[in-house]
Amino acid sequence: MHPLSLYFHFVKLRIRSQMEYRLSFIVELFAQASISVIDFFMIALLFNRFKQLAGWSLWEVGFLYGMIGICFAVAEMIGRGFDAFERNIVRGDFDTILIRPLGTFYQVFANEFLLRRLGRIAQALVVLLIANSQLSVQWSLTKVGYLLISLMSGTCFFIGLFVIAATSCFWTVQSIEVINIFTHGGVFMGSYPFSIYRWWFRHFFTFIIPLACVNYFPALFLLGKIESLGVSPIGVQLAPFAGFLFLGIAMLFWRWGVLHYQSTGH
Amino acid sequence: MIEVNDLSKDFKVYHHRKGFFGSFVNLFSRKHRIVQAVDKVSFTVARGEMVGYLGPNGAGKSTTIKMLTGILVPSSGSVTVNGYIPHRQRKENAKHIGVVFGQRSHLWFDLPVQESFELLQRIYRIPEAAYRQNVEAFEELLNLGDFFRTPVRQLSLGQRMRADIAAALLHNPDVLFLDEPTIGLDVVAKARIRQFIQRINTERQVTVVLTTHDLDDVEKLCKRVILIDNARLRFDGELTALRRLLSTERLLSVDYAEDYPDVSIPSAHIVYQEGARVQYRFSPEEISAADLIGTILRKFRIVDVSIQEPDIEDLIKTVYEDNLMLERKLTEPVSGDM
What we know:
Chain A is mainly alpha-helical.
């Protein structure tokens, strides 16, 4: 249990140092929450005019929005080490990670924790709960478990993207900006039902970058919309595992990147 | 304790194109040249020894240390530290070594020193009793008390270095690697850190490998030195032997009456030339001081002349500047490692 208790010790230290400036912390927490409220307000405005989007109502889209928002904010909170990895490489701090008797992935992961993302998590959660109260989802234990797994999967998916961006620093020093298309862009895209997108786009974000697997398909299942589309129900139920797989592949890529660093030194 | 055999490291240096299009081409083009950073270096260090690993910037010192600590994988040759192969058993090796980089801290920037130490205690799983004992000892020897609760980012360079060295020793490592531990410090801070390293070495039998280009560090701390230059091992032996071997060389400074375009003298090397002031290096075996001055007087008019025995700093500079002389004079009698 050593790695786990050590992880929580790291998190405790991070939280303590971020709480040092209490006022600025609280201000930022609220600022983040209110900025993202405006986000959803935009979607609501759209629906005010069109009422429906590819057969989805406002609150169904709100459900999608809430799910992806939670996943991304949690990923930013706990995956901050990879998100901010670029400066490690620039400062040459990766050497100090290699002299410790712990894995490199573990150390980078444990080293940062962005508590103020709680603001965004709360906002997305509120949207999800309101959306749920307006919909008539028949919740069962299976469905709650499925939702939790989907949320974890989505978080893993975004962390996987951060890991890929971080790993690229071993070659390019600077983080590749392209990844923002998938992270921030992913949150935006994931806030709308995938059926509105083009064929190649849907397939790319299902099989290559499995964004749809962690958000759209789980929502289809939870909101009871599978029947209305011609997709395989088993495929939809298994879809969330793509997020875990994606993180696994990203971790392999990380290992390869570390080996590259150890043979080139930069 | 440390065994290094024919250790080599070469880097591929890629040709980088500039601009947006250039960086795109960089992704696909593999144009590179190979740079030898360390070339067939061999040495062993016994338990409890303190060795100075010297060389000018870019000689390959840091690259060697990085291979000994498991940061880099060697291109060829072998390394063992404590019986571990650092790059294969990185984590195992890390438990038994301490590393300090003078250029950067290995502590957590925004944590107070004390919390950094407690974190290290957990990372290395240091038993509470051993931890207490070490912290107390280091607090006293290094005066950590003054800044024990200050965040690392607020420490002065000297304080930071003391904290870093103490941190690297918390888990009672068998080997301590110090990469430029006194760089940028003032005289008092340097003296304190040297004293501490000395004590750790003698009292705890910690093996110390020290890279530096501050020769004071070496004179105060190390009996044995290893010289590396241009990726190659140049000398491995006692500091006194190095001094003896080189002390046959002397320096002659001459102030000429005017700027002569060519002041070269056979069998004497020009060390530096600044206007009318010229310094020669010569070996009394080849030419006596009297003959040398005589030759100069016959050719030029001079204002002043003086002869010096070179100090160690100059000696080592000489070594780096003239490898031919060194290979001829040093490698055979002292070490068979070339």
